[in-house]
Amino acid sequence: MRLLAGLGSRRTLPQDVRAGLTLGVESVPDGLASGLLAGVNPAYGLYAYLVGTAAGALATSSVFMSVQATGAMSVIVADVPGLTTGSDATGLFTLSVITGAVMLVLGLLRLGSLVRFVPNAVLTGFINAVAVNIVLGQLSNLTGYSSAGGNRISRTIDTLLHPQSWAWASVAVGAATIGLILLLERTPVGQLGLVVAVVLTSAGAAALSLTAVATLDDVAQVPSSLPSFVVPDLSLVGSLLVPALSLALVGLVQGAGISGSIPNPDGRYPDASGDFRGQGVANIAAGLLQGMPVGGSMSATSLVRAAGARSRTANLVAAAVMALLILLFGPVLGYIAMPALAALLILVGVRSFRVENMVGVWRTGPAQATTMAVTFVLTLVVPLQYAVLVGVGLSVVLHVAQQSNRVTVTRWEWDDQGRLVEGEVPAVLRSGEVVVLQPYGSLFFAAVPLFDRQLPAPGAPSAAVILRLRGKQELGSTFITVLRRYSDELSRAGCRLYLAGVGDRVAAQLEATGTLELLGADAVFRATPVVTDSLLAARTAAEDWVRESAH
């Protein structure tokens, strides 16, 4: 029923048709360029756009999400070894199916919140490095010079050092394409300017018989038929699992950006897990129908929305338009000039680079800046499927290191007016003293040693320590071990430890580990809705015990 509602009505059909026509026409050269960027047969990029857009329109929770091959995912595919540009691209199609399966499983498990484990620092470094990789990866198609370097950086340096070997006719076609796109975007042509520019410069190169300018036909045969069904090779799952995980992670993060920023027509934001499932279905469909991996595309979604889309029908119309263009003009697509597509991608890469975002992360702090910088550099020099995973892992390590050094313990005291005042923790307990301690920060295992060092040492007997644990949902075994040791240490010195504000889960842990018995049930005070009740009760009990033990 939700899907039928998302398809709109007769009243919204005219707007959806116009929006779908715009996206469909624009997606043909864009899909071919995505295949080119991925280093595979450009037809597989076009098929991915066709199938992904149609399947995504029917399967995602987001009414407007356009599921297509994104620049970041294309660059990851380009770094996966063994994916052929020839007729047998089973590995590529299998990669799409595996990527879709990962997305689908995550969606079925309702793990839409998983994207919160990809910090902004990693995403900023990755996306900006991908933008650089897009530009660098198209220099050979722009210049007509093929470098034999080991990675994009070395190939770029080699290309720049050999301008005498460039095909300057190709450079001219690329420069003309960029100039026309920038010019036409300022006219009523608008977003279709990139389509018109690619067509005009390709036609110009053909009319002038510029033989040095390569075309799509020189790279691969452009089909004039719709994709056919293929069977994935499940024996490749082991070798393709890591890139599939990286593709799924990047695709899901990009899709989550759409889910969280573009509401459905009813004003409510889409379910992120539902969009996970929809992107998974789209990838599986793309892999079974000769397409490369796809994901939620912010640029395509923004385009179809700006063109007036009112329902899912807009993306379905876009897919139908792509299918018609393939059937009617497939042979003509082979005349598209490679430098024209390269220029389109270079412009996309330049526009995707966000200096202000990098500066913002850099100013946030050393941990975030380091995470972003390492992710950025790794994305440039190592295969992307590893770079994004290393970036996430590094951010987790740095976060743990940060949090473990941010544990502080303060002393709470009541002044003459009955107000709580924070102060420094005494180094040594004095006789007859009741010290209330409030820890701040996460008390996970790596932070426990720092917490332990801030506890007051037992001195004279007849003193008590109250540790306030309100808000702590769970205690690790390392922290409980420290509690037991500190309680024993205080007990041997004639002092006692009390716990206040203990929640249900922590209480269950204390009982299960025997810590409740060690401390004494009368020394553990459960949390109540009134914030200070358990603390005041613990203070009263501690003061009574101190008076009794002093006699």
Short note summarizing the structure:
This protein has 551 residues and is of the alpha/beta class.
Layout: helices, strands, pairs:
Layout: H1 2-6, H2 13-38, H3 42-59, E1 66-68, H4 71-78, H5 90-108, H6 120-137, H7 139-143, H8 152-160, H9 168-184, H10 193-207, H11 216-219, H12 237-259, H13 272-288, E2 295-297, H14 298-306, H15 313-333, H16 338-352, H17 355-364, H18 366-381, H19 384-404, E3 408-414, E4 420-423, E5 434-440, H20 448-453, E6 464-468, H21 477-492, E7 496-502, H22 504-512, H23 515-519, E8 524-526, H24 533-550
Parallel strand pairs: 5-6, 6-7, 7-8
Antiparallel strand pairs: 1-2, 3-4, 3-5
Helix pairs in contact: 2-3, 2-4, 2-14, 2-15, 2-16, 3-13, 3-15, 4-12, 5-12, 5-13, 6-16, 6-17, 6-18, 6-19, 9-10, 9-16, 10-16, 12-13, 12-19, 17-18, 18-19
What are the key terms here?
551 residues; alpha/beta; Transcription Regulator spoIIAA; two-stranded antiparallel ribbon
